[in-house]
Write the structure tokens for this entry.
Amino acid sequence: MAASLMLACVPRPEHQVPSVVRAVAPGAWLEKWLAAFNDARASTYADFVRAHMPTLVPYLDDDLGLREATGGFTLLRHEETAPGQITAWVRDRNWDRFSRVVLSIGDGRIDDLSFQGAPPPGDFAIRRLGEHEALTLLHQRLREEATAGRFSGAVLVAKDGIVLFREAYGATPATRFCIGSMGKMFTAVAVLQLVQDGRLGLTDTLASLLPAYPDTALARQVTVQHLLTHTGGTGDFFGADYDAHAAQLRTPSDFIRHFGAREVAFPPGSRWGYSNFGFILLGAIVEQVSGLGWDVYLERNVFRTAGMSSTSPVASAGNTAVPCTGATQPGLKPLPFYVGLPAGGGYSTLDDLHRFGTVLSETRLLDARHLELLTTANVQAGNSQWSLGLRVAVRNGEAYYGHGGSAPGVNADFAIYPRSGYEVIVLANRGHPHALNVADFIGARLPLADR
């Protein structure tokens, strides 16, 4: 704990409390929150949330999972970034990951809490290893995490299409996992296939492609390219309204009927803003242009081509990992299976995703020009960049493209390093960042490109 954080003041009569005490309150709250988060007993953090963060109780299981995955946080620095708001930069105790934690302080309590990834400090370095040494270290680390009950999932590492590492913990390598937003990769490929075939244009607007869409500025201004790059201002759909109507929201048409009257959240093309609703709209466009349901189109034109026989929008009976949330066994809570959408949530396996990466690189799903559009960055997106459908970023100096997925009880990461030829796939039936930590760990240690 940083010594600069103010300790909580002993309560005194109101007229004796100096005005400066109010000014340091956010720092005191940060210290209290971090002490509870880092406590060896999960119950300490649960009690703290219930007592001092009542509006965040619905997210307690997610926080407990994060606490377990990270091993707690080491505080690097903090500052008050707005009135009643304090931001802390932290590092995981168990992994290499850095985060930015923002606390919003209300009247005698913490009103809001957010976790965001952060770049490592400039003086932080991880030594690259030889391939055998890196994979041996990965095996040891995963066994430790699995034995401690902190990881259940499956991991694959390949180079130039050859599988080097394929292991599972609490599952089998053939287990199907929910992949969350990783499914957006398939939707992006479908859209670019239609562009490649001349049936769709990147500059086509929603209004021109979906005649039944409500006549809004969003429909008239947002293009296919905006949707693929998350720059359309189409926003998200998760929240109380979605929760109240989730049972009726099963198809892209259902979402458009319910959310289609919305206006743009920001001028299209002006900035990046991750949008699940935008990929629902891409699914609707695939259906309109192809005349097939989005899931049928993917089965015929992506999964079948790649030989992905275990990939689908829905969970199947047997050998499918149940999403779980919460802390270490026996505190894990099983969750219902998710239903896939064009924005993600489907199911796949290590081998199917490896097949997808292979046929993609062999230009069997897209020709070279459109594969370049899918994998080349053209939009700044926070600490990384975005292409026409994929995240493009760097791990310890080596560039990669791919996609992650996260939801309660779900975390997944798919990364291809085009210069070195490595491919890393991590699937977990635990929430963020259980899979991401593993992907970052091995991605930062495999040898750099030797070509």
